[in-house]
Design goal:
The structure is a single chain. This protein is of the alpha/beta class. It has helices at 53-68, 84-96, 113-121, 147-161, 178-191, 208-221, 233-245, 261-269, 280-297, 326-332, and strands spanning 42-48, 72-78, 101-104, 125-129, 141-144, 168-172, 200-203, 227-230, 253-258, 274-277, 305-307, 311-314. The longest helix has 18 residues, at 280-297.
Length: 337
């Protein structure tokens, strides 16, 4: 059967959220295209590294929301960061099976552009979650955390909580990664410090081991560090171990981003001073809402990145900066408790 280019459809859905590695593919040419013999539409979900509780939460929320609407779901998983080949193959398979929409957490900002454009050319709705494509317009919309805002929140809190003579260090992830770069820049802006004024910085792999190792290296070179930004909560946990081993517990301000239940527990225990919570379940649910509107009458969401929300979690609130307690965080966090 030949592929048919669908006529343009009206746009204008209002949506509000985003984040994770999933892919929905769907033919939107009307009739029963992309539906089984029972008339139910099929969507595809391509997830990234489901062993990561963030991505697992996003994938489950997306699938549950789709099945609650009576839809069928095709799934595939890229098991390692950067595994675009698996995602490309999965999306090609979904196009061949005439799914109705593609919701994808891209393993690469650019490697999926060609296959996603082919999907759009056939009338399939393309949604990205967790991280934007490059250019963003490759997707009809992106649902993700505003990572600049997340970084700014913990930067503002760290500034207000800093000792009299702050010495600031940053434990980052590969800054070619858009969320990592956005968190980095947001923190600098929120704290009101330039990169050149930092005591030190280092790249981690976002793991506890590399967080500890790089924090040890930084403290060896700059033993007066007393404020530390971390890319995520595992890196923060490792950094805290290094800080504790140096006898600096209680003397160092440590902040992070994510909002996993384990990270919120670390806030409660005083390991992390504050973290910015993301909401991966909202990303998936909002993506499904956008698909539902598209299936109903062809309405597409507004383009660009749609924020899924962020909340500052701390048990040491500062005046003028809205925040939630760790108890609230444990009621809204994701991943194992």
């Amino acid at each position: 059967m030949k592929n048919v280019r669908c006529a343009p459809r009206p746009t204008g859905l209002r949506v509000s959220a985003l984040t994770l590695a999933v892919a929905f593919a769907a033919v939107a040419c009307g009739g029963n295209g992309g539906a089984g013999s029972d008339g139910k539409p099929t969507i595809g979900v391509v997830a990234l590294n489901l062993s990561n509780p963030f991505f697992g939460t996003l994938e489950k929320a997306t699938e549950d929301a789709a099945k609650a609407k009576g839809w069928k779901v095709m799934k595939a998983e890229a098991k390692t960061p950067g595994d675009s080949a698996t995602q490309v193959t999965a999306i090609e398979n979904m196009i061949a099976n005439k799914v109705k929409a593609i919701v994808v957490t891209p393993a690469s900002a650019t490697a999926l552009n060609g296959v996603l454009q082919r999907a759009k050319d056939q009338g399939i709705l393309v949604l990205a979650v967790n991280a934007p494509l490059s250019p963003e317009s490759v997707a009809d919309a992106t649902f993700a955390t505003d990572n600049v805002a997340a970084g700014r929140l913990i930067g503002q809190w760290a500034k207000a909580s800093s000792p009299a003579k702050p010495r600031v260090a940053m434990l980052d992830f590969d800054l070619s990664d858009a969320p990592a770069a956005d968190r980095h820049e947001g923190f600098l802006a929120g704290y009101g410090i330039s990169k050149s004024a930092l005591a030190g910085s280092a790249l981690t792999k976002g793991t506890e081991d590399t967080g500890q190792q790089e924090m040890e290296n930084l403290l060896s070179a700059h033993p007066d560090i007393n404020v530390v930004y971390t890319i995520n909560e595992p890196a923060a946990r490792g950094a805290h171990t290094a800080i504790r081993n140096k006898g600096l517990s209680g003397k160092t301000v440590l902040v992070s981003v994510d909002g996993a239940c384990s990270g919120v527990q670390d806030v409660k225990k005083g390991v992390i001073g504050a973290t910015a919570m993301q909401f991966p379940d909202r990303m998936g649910e909002k993506a499904v809402e956008a698909v539902a509107a598209f299936l109903e009458d062809g309405t597409k969401p507004k383009g660009g990145v749609i924020d899924s929300g962020t909340a500052l979690i701390t048990d040491r609130p500062v005046e003028g900066l809205p925040s939630e307690t760790s108890e609230w965080g444990l009621e809204h966090c994701w991943g194992p408790k």
